[in-house]
Write a structure and sequence with these properties.
The complex is a heterodimer. By secondary structure, chain A is an alpha+beta fold. Helix content of chain A is 26%, strand content 49%. Chain A has one domain (7-85). Chain A has one helix and four strands. Chain A has a four-stranded antiparallel β-sheet. In chain A, strand 1 and strand 2 form a beta hairpin. Chain A starts with 6 loop residues before the first strand and ends with a helix. By secondary structure, chain B is an alpha/beta fold. Chain B has a single domain (7-247), classed as 3-Layer(aba) Sandwich (Rossmann fold). Chain B has an eight-stranded mixed β-sheet, sandwiched between helices. In chain B, helix 3 (93-108) packs across helix 4 (124-135). Classes of the chains: A alpha+beta, B alpha/beta. The interface between A and B is medium-sized, with 23 and 31 residues.
Chain lengths: 86, 248
């Protein structure tokens, strides 16, 4: 189904797209029909810099299972990294 | 004419809501006409390959088809435009009606138009088609393919961009309605489809609803796992017959 649900998350960092590295300040996260991935629904993340508009959007479309594994990987990497750097 | 009909396609300019200059994909069958026409409304992810394919399928059946880009005001490629529109909470119903009126005006102004125009939409486009059929009194037919949120059960879902529960527009629909739904869909689910049908029936509208077992949401989409070949072929067959009857 099409939904208008978007989780908007402020963040600080950088992402690399077709035109090179850009600063990003927001992630728009939603679970809906993908544009490209061969799925009925996907977890979509648009990394953007709101100051520059969406022309520099860095986008991913992930299967639901992939998205959960990614979340787990991020948390695991953070935990291990923080322990190693402390 | 040979068994297979030729066609021409192009991107054309339309005058949309509030006079904004927009764009639309236009497919025209080979020949001088006159042809009936369909305004085809894309789903939430925007003006994608699928909607162009659907436009060509209708042209192959002898109908002119115009598919406006409802996100033309945003910068970038169609997927970037869709992302921006989504982040802004979607497009307003008033704007969609204005853009569809612009697409309708484009085809009606053509010398090869027979003056009859229908509207068809998928998913959120089905909801938009429902609204357009009510608010554009000269519409001659509507095909709603699994339009979600036609019945708004939570008032919190009504927003400044979508201020009216679409089912409240039903009384204003004067043209015949074809509805195509999958029984495994969650929006609209079978109970919501039943409610919509009950309203149309109570209002004495001319409608035909078709519900398919073994199909969910978006089952016409041949490039996605939800595709159901048997149900999709039958749904398209009913769509062609419906448009030929009312736009021919």
């Amino acid at each position: 189904m099409c939904t208008y649900i978007v989780e908007k998350t402020p963040l600080m960092g950088a992402a690399k797209g077709p035109q090179g590295w850009v600063s990003i300040d927001t992630a728009n996260v939603y679970f809906d029909h993908p544009f490209h991935a061969p799925l009925d629904h996907s977890l979509n993340i648009d990394f953007i810099n709101e100051r520059d508009g969406l022309s520099q959007r860095i986008a991913v479309e992930l299967s639901a299972d992939s998205a959960v594994r990614l979340v787990e990987s991020i948390l695991s990497a953070l935990k291990q990294g923080e322990a190693a750097h402390s | 004419m040979s068994y297979y009909r030729g066609m021409t396609t192009q991107v054309v300019s339309i005058t949309g809501h509030k006079g904004d200059k927009g764009e639309a994909y236009f497919a025209k069958p080979e020949g001088d006409g006159p042809f009936g026409a369909v305004v085809l409304i894309h789903h939430m992810p925007g003006w994608d390959d699928w909607i162009m394919e659907a436009a060509r399928k209708l042209a192959h059946q002898g109908l002119m088809c115009i598919a406006p880009n409802l996100y033309f005001r945003e910068p970038g490629s169609p997927d970037d435009q869709a992302a921006k529109a989504r982040a802004d909470g979607g497009v307003s119903d008033d704007q969609v009606v204005g853009d569809v009126e612009g697409a309708l005006a484009y085809v009606r102004a053509r010398k090869d138009s027979n003056g009859k125009v229908g509207v068809m939409g998928f998913c959120s486009g089905g909801r938009h088609a429902f609204i357009c059929a009510a608010r554009i009194p000269t519409m001659n037919a509507i095909v709603d393919c699994w339009g979600g949120s036609v019945i708004v059960e939570d008032p919190a879902q009504l927003t400044p961009k979508r201020p009216v529960n679409p089912i409240d527009y039903a009384k204003d629909i004067q043209c015949p309605i074809l509805g195509i739904f999958g029984n495994d869909d969650k929006n609209p689910d079978p109970a919501q489809v039943d409610k919509t049908e009950a309203v149309l029936k109570s209002l004495g509208k001319t409608y035909s609803f078709h519900r398919y077992d073994g199909a969910g949401h978006g089952f016409f989409g041949s490039e996605r796992p939800a595709y159901r070949v048997e149900q999709a072929l039958d749904g398209w067959k009913k769509t062609y017959a419906f448009f030929h009857q009312h736009l021919g």
